[in-house]
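Researcher: Sequence recovery benchmark, item below. Answer with residues only.
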């Protein structure tokens, strides 16, 4: 701040010296020279005021607009297409019995068969009490090989809670 005041005073003194030189060189134009000097002094004072405000309130590193544009340019995290498709199938399976039986059920059967084979050495289509016990009653009813198709294609699917329990049952096969 002190440096700013020193520079401002120096600028005003130089404007005064310039006014004195102008009076000496052209004696008949005093009013015009005084107006030019006043204009220069006013510009110096305005510049000093702007610099003082800038020192008091330094500008942020970037503007809010630049931050928003920068955030927008970052790529959205990509979800695996297979996961997105399976999530859609789960939503449809809750909506209609057809989607549950013919679209989601084959995926659940495949997962159950693989988990049973890997972790227990059992075959899903072999059935039996060991398979039923490993899957649990609710999951077994959904993936059993002799499950009949829905009577109405547009009938209600499964409840979300039941589907969540079935998925948890698949995850618990160890």
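Model:
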């Amino acid at each position: 701040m002190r440096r700013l005041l020193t520079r401002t005073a120096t600028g005003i003194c130089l404007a005064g010296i310039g006014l004195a030189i102008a009076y000496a060189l052209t004696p008949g134009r005093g009013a015009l020279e005084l107006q030019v000097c006043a204009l220069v002094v006013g510009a110096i004072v305005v510049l000093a005021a702007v610099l003082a405000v800038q020192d008091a309130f330094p500008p942020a590193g970037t503007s809010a607009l630049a931050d928003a544009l920068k955030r927008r340019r970052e790529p959205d995290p990509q979800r695996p297409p297979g996961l997105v498709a399976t999530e859609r199938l789960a939503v449809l399976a809750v909506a209609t019995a057809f989607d549950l039986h013919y679209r989601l059920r084959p995926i659940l059967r495949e997962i159950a068969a693989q988990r049973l084979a890997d972790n227990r050495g059992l075959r899903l289509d072999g059935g039996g009490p060991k398979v039923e016990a490993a899957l649990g009653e609710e999951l077994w009813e959904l993936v059993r090989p002799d499950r009949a198709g829905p009577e109405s294609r547009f009938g209600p699917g499964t409840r979300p809670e039941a589907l969540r329990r079935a998925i948890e049952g698949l995850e618990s096969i160890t």
